[in-house]
Amino acid sequence: MNTFTDYGRKLRRQIAGRYYRISIKQRILFSFIVLITLSIGAMGSFSYWIAAQEIEDNAYAGSRETVSKTAQLLDSRLNDVALSVQSLMLSDAYRKMMLDVFSHDVSNYYVHLSDLQYVLSQATFNQPIIENVLIVTPIGDFYSTTQIRAQDNSFYGSELYDLSKEQPGGYWAKGHYDRLFTGSQRVVSFVVRGIYEYPYTPISNVFIVVNIREGRIDELLNTGGAQAGRNYYLVSREGEAVVESRWPFRGRFPWKPVLAEAGKAADPQDHYYSYGGKEYLVNYTSSASSPDWIISGMQSRDQLLGKLQRVQRITLYVIVVFLLATWLISNQLTSALLKPLFKLRRLMRRVEENQLSVVYESRYEDEVAQVGFQFNRMMSEIKTLIADVKSKEEDKRHAEIRALTAQMEPHFLYNTLNTIYCKSVMGENDDVNEMILSLSQMFQIGLSGGKDLITLADELSHMRQYFAIQQKCYEGLFEYTVTVEDEALLSCLLPKIILQPVVENSIQHGFSDRTIGGRIDIAVSREQGLLHISITDNGRGLDPARVRQGMVRAPKSRKGYALFNIRHRLALYYGAEARMDVGGEPCKGSRMDLWIPPREES
């Protein structure tokens, strides 16, 4: 006994300790919530109990009425189909066809087939629910030529014909795959024997088959059925599905025991059945057009009583409103004490959004204010550290750009000096003088006072000097053109020595297998707000996919480094705003395109 007493005291102390540790705001809020929840909950439960019986009775009556109306709608459509068949048999075209059937005259088959087209079209026009109509006779089948008859399947060898022997007065066949026409879609069929004039006696070997797409019947049954979760099914008295419903359960619901309780009653009935852990209200009534068919409506009890659930929701909404009012009142009581802390919390959230210029200000010198002042000192140190990191990253970026630019120059310089030396030995002093002058001008533009960006005019001048030197090195090897769409583009800035490596690739690699006939064209234009530079040659071409891979990954050797270098420099200057692409095919030349954001010289 003492053990249980000690345990109870210990538990109460733990609960009291947790209660004392929560804030005043939480205690006030908790008290209001408990009081209002108990009072509103009691009122809602009482209201729910009063309304439950009346709403439930109304829901049951509405469900039975809806099933009855659905059955009337289905019977109306099926009767309309039967009337359309009677109208067809009263037509003059049908009468003429039956005369030939009676006399076994097949010579006018195609004439009758043509004459019946209007009658068949009129039937499907008046009753859009009809999918197709087939008139089966000993002299041939008659049907709408807009349909494609499955010639391999005869009506006389089908299950429909077998059922006709059992029901000579005509019948409705449950859903099946249409084997009489191509497509093999599921249909519900109306089969009746043909009538021949007065006294309108059926002819045993003439049949009229009207097919209705199974989905049309299902749509007709479930028009508006999704409301409140109500679904309708068409089943036989043996519990088999007449139509494969697209709604839940399909044929899995145990219709047979359900319908067994209904017997053969024609009046609507309703019963509750449990299935799949839920309770369902099932209403059913017989079809007047086909007495063996039963229209059954199924609805979850929970969905049927949806109005009661709305009462519950309204009660919950009222509780939520009062709880919100309670929260507002308690918040006003505690906001004066917690306002400085809330202010500091808002500043911290702004820091999370990268607003580092925030400053905490307060006229007080209490504990919360001291925390705020410490926060200000911490933010000051963070901003100083960020500024140092940015400065170092900027210096690193400029150093990398200069290093990349420097890597573009030595290779060409070595080749040029070797050519000058060779021409000097051979006594071609005029060429030596021109090459030295062009090389000097190239260096002057390349140095450009230490600037990383030069104008397009200077870059093209640099290219012309480069071409002049290369034409001296490879006499007669190639010609070149430079075309500028708009003279205003010449003032645009771009990274220096960015075109020379592309042209050098064309000369060194594109023209490596020829001695004359080379051509390089440089075109400058404005395209979609970007400076577009295109360099094409008629050299031996390249594999674009392989070159693009080399542009993305730094090569392990110097070979192929130039294009990677250019792409990397553009990325350092412009990020994703600049683009670079290659094109061409082996033995058909190559093409290099650069798109650079235009920046005017300040």
Keywords for this entry:
alpha+beta; five-stranded antiparallel sheet; 17 strands; flat; transferase; EC 2.7.13.3
Task: Give the structure's gist in a few sentences.
By secondary structure, the protein is α+β, with helices and mostly antiparallel strands. It contains 16 helices and 17 strands.
Distance between the termini: 94 Å
SS element count, helices: 16
The number of E-state strands comes to 17
Q: If you compute it from the alpha carbons, what radius of gyration comes out, rounded to the nearest whole angstrom?
A: 46 Å
Q: Residue share in helices?
A: 40-55%
Overall mean pLDDT stands at 77
Please tell me what the overall shape is.
Answer: flat
Name the beta content range: 15-25%
| Order of strands in the sheet with most strands | 2-1-5-4-3
**Any low-confidence stretches, pLDDT <50, length ≥5?**
264-268
Largest sheet, if any? 5 strands, antiparallel
- Structural class call reads alpha+beta
EC number: 2.7.13.3
GO molecular function: protein histidine kinase activity
Domain HAMP: 335-387
InterPro entries: Bact_2-comp_sensor_kinase, HAMP_dom, HATPase_C_sf, HATPase_dom, Sig_transdc_His_kin_internal
